[in-house]
Design a protein that fits this description.
Elements (H helix, E strand, L loop, with lengths): L1 E5 L4 E5 L7 H14 L5 H17 L2 H18 L5 H19 L2
Antiparallel strand pairs: 1-2
Helix pairs in contact: 1-2, 1-4, 2-3, 3-4
């Protein structure tokens, strides 16, 4: 998208690019973070993310949000003590999806 502003003497432009992704793809990106992380309990985390992704793909948005809530709880219980930075990132990423899908 390009924004052009100006007056009678000067003009300026700014360009911004957007990438629009589905909630299921966003969950998939979190799955990649989990898979690449050095974690002992990946399967429990991935199970919640797989369930959320499947729910989004079926159009069951409330169920998907509940799965993401469960994922956040698992991250707090299983990741936060050993890797607080990763836990914070995973929780924040899931929360972004929850916030967008929960609406205003």
């Amino acid at each position: 998208m390009t924004l052009v502003v100006g007056d009678s003497q000067h003009t300026a432009t700014a360009e911004v690019n957007f990438e629009i992704i589905t909630p299921g793809i966003a969950v998939g990106q979190i799955m990649l973070l989990v898979e690449e992380a050095n974690l002992q309990h990946k399967q429990a985390l991935l199970a919640s993310l797989n369930a959320a992704q499947a729910s989004f793909d079926r159009g069951h948005f409330n169920a998907a949000v509940h799965e993401l809530d469960a994922f956040q709880d698992k991250v707090r219980a299983q990741v936060a003590k050993s890797d607080p930075e990763l836990a914070s990132e995973l929780i924040a990423d899931a929360q972004q999806i929850i916030t967008v899908m929960s609406g205003p």
